[in-house]
Each structure stands twice: as structure tokens, then as C-alpha cells.
Write a structure and sequence with these properties.
By secondary structure, the protein is an alpha/beta fold. The protein is about 35% helix and about 20% strand. It has helices at about 10-20, 35-50, 75-85, 90-95, 110-120, 135-145, 190-195, 200-215, 240-245, 265-275, 290-295, 305-315, 335-350, 375-400, and strands spanning about 25-30, 55, 65-70, 100-105, 125, 150, 170-175, 175-180, 195-200, 220, 255-260, 280-285, 320-330, 355-360, 405-410, 420-425, 430, 440-450, 455-460. The strands form five sheets. The chain has a six-stranded parallel sheet with strand order 2-1-3-4-5-6, sandwiched between helices. α9 packs parallel to α10, α10 runs parallel beside α12 and α13 (about 335-350) packs parallel to α14. About 40% of the residues are buried. The mean pLDDT is about 95.
């Protein structure tokens, strides 16, 4: 285990200090805000905590160590975190030995880190997105006399060999790279997660093999821009080649990836997807706007026609491909004409589903300084029009599945007697059935459709 110089003797010392502080084997509560990358980061943080002797609880009111792994992509996410941290004040007052920690993207923003330090003095530990391997050292400092500990670093080496305590047992998050070099004008990710750094192929393949041997059936390759994979490595590598190598591993599983940037998406990647049987027939390709003028202001590095040509090529290689995307409504200066361009792109591409966002200004980004004459009412009205259009398209595309038999991975469901099955196109199907199906790929006949969900029955 890579604990930044901490050997077994040091770890045992920390375990003893924890038992002395709490009087029992400690428990931890980890709350994750934000994207799949944050979920993956939390899995590694839990792995480190487990290596220090922590057990885990699903509720903070029984935890000795409370960790919030934060998101900074939108203002609403930050506001939620501040509210959650504030709610811990009474808990900390009642349990003075409890340790409260905040990490993640918010802490990499100087203004947010300053606010947490000054507004919430009961937060004991604040650290950045790349400091999981330093957690034992920080805890040791806290347990041996430091009143509070701060460790904020954006870049640095990728710490391999950390233990991982995963969220589930079917879908496995597998980071292939960290950081972003794109500097879209609205986005804080390059500022909080640092520049692009790729993991070595051998480390990725080893982790993929571990996931397969542990029974994971749905492997998701992660990166802020997976198409930049290979940057920073000494050996030549690209994402299309990596995808082929992961798919070539023995076992029954599906491989997905996110997120893919249109300016770096290549025909070779699309060809690799089409030729790899284990690669999911699902392409998530954020487009953000259908207006070339707005795309230029966003610093996206591509235009409308380039995006449409990528989708056309992808569907040429894979006629059964499902396409999803991200779109921002109300970017500063967006006119009605610009918005109509977005609607027309949605009509032309016909996405299976969309992740939709009203523009949220982020301090420190170029877009935050742009004049914005579009009222919030206009933005919400535009969003409503966009959602109505997308719901019509999604309903029509889902209806085309009715009567077809598809291969799907059966997942758990909170509904008694119902299994949720995920197709290679990332479509979700509710199927009557028992737990004996969970974790298996089954043939499912679709019997009914809605805007977002299909219903079906096992073909056998």
C-alpha cells in the first residue's frame, strides 16, 4: 500500500492513537458530492481509512470520522456542502473527539477553502483532490497535537497501490487519467484538478483485472477527457488502444467510458468501439451548445458541424449506438437565435438522453467576467422548451425498443420483485424477477416504454 512513506509500524501507531482517542475501533462516514470521478476518489479514501482500521457507517450520527468529498462544478453543489457542514456544528459540540474532514474540488478553490477554514472552525482537516495517500500522515499530525491540519495540492504524482473500498459489486469505476487541459471558459475543473496526467497502462490493466476477478460486470473508464489519454506517459499510448486492451481481457463484462471531448474524439476510437464486442454501444459526447458563436465563447475547440459529423461517423460504425450529451442553457450572451441553434442540433442528432444545466458562473473562470443580459426567467423558459423537445425524442426512440429482445446486465432494484437491467446502450429496463438474476447478463424482451425507462420480461 502506498501511504507516502508510512510503513506498517507507522500505520499500527496511528491505529493505536485512534483507539486511544475514541476508546474503541473507529467508524467513518464518507459523503460524496458530484461526479463519478469524485465517487472513485471516495472509494480510494475509504480504502485508506479501512487500512487504518476504520469501519464504516451509513449515518454520520454514529461516526467518529466524518468526511465530505466535495464538488465545485456548480454553485448549487457548493451551497449544499456548506449547508451540510454547518449542520455538523452541534454534532461536533456534543462529541468533541469526533474528527470532521472536508476534501475534494471545493477545497482547491482558495475562496472556498478560506470560507471553510474561517466559517467552520470545527472542521479539523481540509485537503485537496490528490492527497488521499497523505491521509495517514495528516491524521497522525492531528492525533499528535495539531489543532487543525490543511494540505491543499492540485497537481503531483499519481499515487498507485492505494487500497480501494468500492461502492458496489457490479459497476466498477476505473480512472485512466486525472486533470484537464481544455480550459473551457465556464469550467473550474482545470483549476481544481490540475493538468492532465495519465496512469500507466499496466496499472490500469492490473486494476481492470482485479475488478473482473472480483466479479464486476460493468467497468467504466474515467477521465475529465479520456480522449487525451497518453499525455505525460513515456511510452506511446492513446485511448483507442487502451480501450482495445481492456476489452481484450478475459471474462464476461462490459466496458464504458466518460467523458469524451468532441475536439479529441477520433475515428480510431469509434472504430475501436465498433470492433470490441465488450465495448458498450453508448457514446456520451457533451456538445454544450448548438451555436458556433457560443461554442467559441466557451472555448470548446470545435464547431457544430464537426460535432454532427462525429455522430454521423459513430452511427455509421455502430447503427445500434445510443448517444447522450451535456448541454448548457443560458451561457452569457446567448441569444434566442443561439438557443434555436441548440434546439435544431438536438433535433438533428436525436439524443437518447441529455444531461441539462442552466449556466452557473464559477469564480475564477473567464466566463464569470462576461456580461450576461439573459434573465433567469428567460433561461428557465428556454430550459423548459429544451426538456419538452428532448422528452419527445426520448419517448420516440424508446418506443422503438418495444418488441425487441436485448442483452442486459441485471442490477439490484429497490422495488420488491423487480430487477433493473442495463443494456449496452445504457437503457434501463424494469423486469419482474428474483435476486437470482442479479449480476448476470440476461436476454430481456421489451414490452413497454416511457420517456426514460423501459419495461420488459426475461426472454426465457
Amino acid at each position: 500500500m502506498n501511504f507516502s512513506g508510512f510503513d506498517e509500524e507507522n500505520i499500527n501507531e496511528i491505529k493505536a492513537l485512534l483507539r486511544e482517542r475514541f476508546g474503541h475501533s473507529p467508524t467513518a462516514f464518507v459523503r460524496t458530492f458530484g461526479c463519478q470521478q469524485n465517487v472513485s476518489d471516495s472509494e480510494r479514501l475509504r480504502g485508506v481509512l479501512a487500512g487504518l482500521g476504520f469501519g464504516f457507517t451509513q449515518s454520520y450520527d454514529s461516526a467518529d470520522f466524518i468526511l465530505f468529498n466535495t464538488c465545485a462544478v456548480r454553485a448549487h453543489a457548493e451551497d449544499r456542502v456548506y449547508g451540510q457542514i454547518g449542520a455538523l456544528k452541534a454534532y461536533k459540540k456534543a462529541r468533541k473527539n469526533a474528527i470532521i474532514a472536508v476534501c475534494g474540488c471545493m477545497t482547491q478553490q482558495s475562496a472556498a477553502a478560506k470560507k471553510i477554514r474561517e466559517t467552520f472552525p470545527f472542521v479539523d482537516l481540509i485537503f485537496g483532490v490528490n492527497a488521499a495517500h497523505l491521509l495517514p500522515k495528516m491524521l497522525c499530525e492531528l492525533l499528535t497535537g495539531s489543532e487543525r491540519v490543511f494540505n491543499l495540492q492540485a497537481d503531483g504524482e499519481i499515487a498507485e497501490g492505494l487500497p480501494i473500498n468500492r461502492d458496489g459489486d457490479l459497476r466498477g469505476w476505473l480512472p485512466v487519467m486525472y486533470g484537464c487541459d481544455n480550459f473551457c471558459s465556464y469550467c473550474v475543473v482545470p483549476y481544481v484538478r490540475g493538468r492532465e496526467r495519465s496512469r500507466r497502462q499496466k496499472d490500469i490493466l492490473r486494476e481492470a483485472e482485479d475488478l473482473i476477478q472480483a466479479g464486476f460486470k460493468d467497468i467504466v473508464l474515467l477521465g475529465q477527457n479520456v480522449n487525451s489519454y497518453g499525455k505525460g506517459l513515456t511510452e506511446p499510448a492513446d485511448f483507442a488502444g487502451l480501450l482495445r486492451r481492456v476489452c481484450a481481457l478475459p471474462g464476461e463484462f462490459t466496458v464504458r467510458f466518460m467523458t469524451s471531448h468532441p475536439k479529441d474524439c477520433t475515428r480510431d476510437l469509434l472504430l475501436a468501439m465498433s470492433e470490441c464486442e465488450k465495448a458498450a454501444r453508448h457514446l456520451h459526447l457533451p456538445f454544450q451548445s448548438g451555436s458556433d458563436r457560443i461554442l467559441a465563447a466557451m472555448n470548446r475547440g470545435y464547431g457544430r458541424e464537426h460535432y454532427i459529423s462525429l455522430i454521423s461517423a459513430a452511427r455509421e460504425f455502430m447503427p445500434d449506438l445510443a448517444v447522450t450529451g451535456d448541454v448548457i442553457v443560458g451561457f452569457p450572451g446567448e441569444t434566442e437565435e443561439d438557443f434555436l441553434g441548440t434546439l435544431s442540433l438536438i433535433k438533428e442528432v436525436e439524443f437518447n438522453s441529455l444531461y441539462t444545466f442552466i449556466y452557473s458562473p464559477r469564480e475564477g473562470t473567464p466566463a464569470a467576467k462576461l456580461p450576461d443580459h439573459v434573465t433567469h426567467l428567460e433561461k428557465t423558459e428556454r430550459m423548459a422548451r429544451l426538456l419538452r423537445l428532448q422528452e419527445e425524442i426520448a419517448a420516440r426512440k424508446n418506443e422503438m425498443f418495444v418488441g425487441k429482445t436485448v442483452r442486459a446486465l441485471c442490477e439490484k432494484s429497490e422495488k420488491d420483485g423487480i430487477i433493473t437491467a442495463r443494456t449496452g446502450q445504457n437503457q434501463m429496463i424494469e423486469v419482474p424477477g428474483g435476486w437470482e438474476h442479479v449480476g448476470k447478463f440476461e436476454r430481456v424482451t421489451v414490452t413497454a416504454s416511457g420517456n426514460y425507462l423501459l419495461k420488459g420480461e426475461f426472454a426465457n
